[in-house]
Amino acid sequence: MSQGVHDFIIKHKLLNEVQTVFVAVSGGPDSMALLHYLLKRREMYGIEVEAIHVNHQLRGAESVEDEQYVQKFCTEHNIPLHTKKMDVQTFAAQNKTGTQKAASELRYQWFDEWLENRPHSCIATAHHGDDQTETILMTMVRGGNLLVPSGINVKRILQNGFVIRPFLGITKEEIEHYCKREGITPRIDSSNHSMKYTRNRYRQQIMPFIKSENPSVHTHMQRFQEWQRDDQSYLMELAEEAFKSIVVKKSEQSITISIEATERLRFPLQRRVIHLILRYLYGKNSPSSTSIHIEQIIRLLNRQEPSKELHLANGLFVYLSYDCCHFTLKPQIKEEQPLVPLTVPGNTDTAAGTFTSYYLETSDIPEDQKHMLHLDADKVVFPLSIRGVLPGDRISLRGMSGTKKVNRLYIDRKVDSAVRKVWPLLVDGSGELLWVPLLHRSKSAVITDQTKRVLVLVFVPCISI
């Protein structure tokens, strides 16, 4: 075992520039073997060795006895020991998470705090090759994100330092043999036999079969984890560059990408670009089913019809609009009320912008602009109102004969589907459409030479069309 661990440490440069190693010790065979191994070789590696112990207070008297055992061992071997008690059960309840996950989060949080203001130091944990195999299998079976490297990293980077895992190249059996050879009588955690923990079920039911098929499976799994990590890291760098070429708009809660530019990317980069978008928008609230979401979005991008949409976890809304795909966490704008009276003269606010109306003499008519509508005030059928589009809505064509469907008008002008739902239409007292602001005016109540009084309407949008 000793030579294998040494080779692993040298290969991965785990102790380069390290002066003090704090070994995380539970009292079990793995951590006790690691503490003993590094202590015996501290001069060879040029390091100081100290121990840190976390009492999770989960097993009553057993937890107390574990801490006492570690204290006794460290006293006998003149090893400085630092201990910490944690209320794991309260933390798990407050954060609605499992006990094992809560314990891990608290433990690594303390590790990070411990390394602050301790330069040239690191923490060593005793994760071994069998742990690596179990972790990879558990992740694959659970259906984790395939674009996130699975398994246990040789080195885990924290905010204030890092954690090393020198035992990842050896097995549990080798560790137990080392303990017997060196006269170490470790504590045995009774919870390791409980089948209520997922890892224990893998360890007791699956691992024996796998190791009987290939006793060196841990070596293959370690190689797989390292190669996968390196490959994913490189592909993610390419994806980050590719993202810059496809993004159209980006804000804190939304991202818009070009579908055409995305389709030009190789498929592995398409997946990873979408992964980056989801990671950016979800942040720490990323759901576990991200791989499924990526596949759903890929299928969405491959459709030809505009205005398709997806409603994903945690309020993420993804929809297509012509050559763009929009990702947003913003609450969807509610549709307009069926009918909103227009104040004449005065201002009327809508979800899409503000209408202003006033009267003028014909001699004072301002220059015509697309955000303005001039009507013969004496020909208008009052009251005027504002509403959203309804099925079958049509508007007469100024300067042409016939009418045109409003929805067809939206399609021809490539109006975003989300905008269509809130874009206001001006209707008169008879229900006739007079104006689709910025897009089309009706031929009703047009100004002529006989017009005496002009009603001017101005629409200032608050969203883009």
From TrEMBL:
Keyword tRNA processing applies: yes
Any one cellular-component term (Gene Ontology): cytoplasm
Localisation per UniProt entry: Cytoplasm
Superkingdom field: Bacteria
Primary location: cytoplasm
Catalysed transformations (reactions): cytidine(34) in tRNA(Ile2) + L-lysine + ATP = lysidine(34) in tRNA(Ile2) + AMP + diphosphate + H(+)
GO biological process entries: tRNA modification
UniProt-listed Pfam families: ATP_bind_3, TilS, TilS_C
Record-linked InterPro entries: Lysidine-tRNA-synth_C (IPR012796), Rossmann-like_a/b/a_fold (IPR014729), TilS/TtcA_N (IPR011063), tRNA_Ile_lys_synt (IPR012094), tRNA_Ile_lys_synt_N (IPR012795), tRNA_Ile_lys_synt_subst-bd (IPR015262)
Gene3D superfamilies: 3.30.465.60, HUPs
Gene Ontology molecular function: ATP binding; tRNA(Ile)-lysidine synthase activity
All copies of domain Lysidine-tRNA(Ile) synthetase C-terminal, residue ranges: 384-457
Class of the enzyme per the UniProt entry, highest EC level: ligase
Family statement: Belongs to the tRNA(Ile)-lysidine synthase family.
Primary role: Ligates lysine onto the cytidine present at position 34 of the AUA codon-specific tRNA(Ile) that contains the anticodon CAU, in an ATP-dependent manner. Cytidine is converted to lysidine, thus changing the amino acid specificity of the tRNA from methionine to isoleucine.
Protein's name in the database: tRNA(Ile)-lysidine synthase
Organism: Alkalihalophilus marmarensis DSM 21297
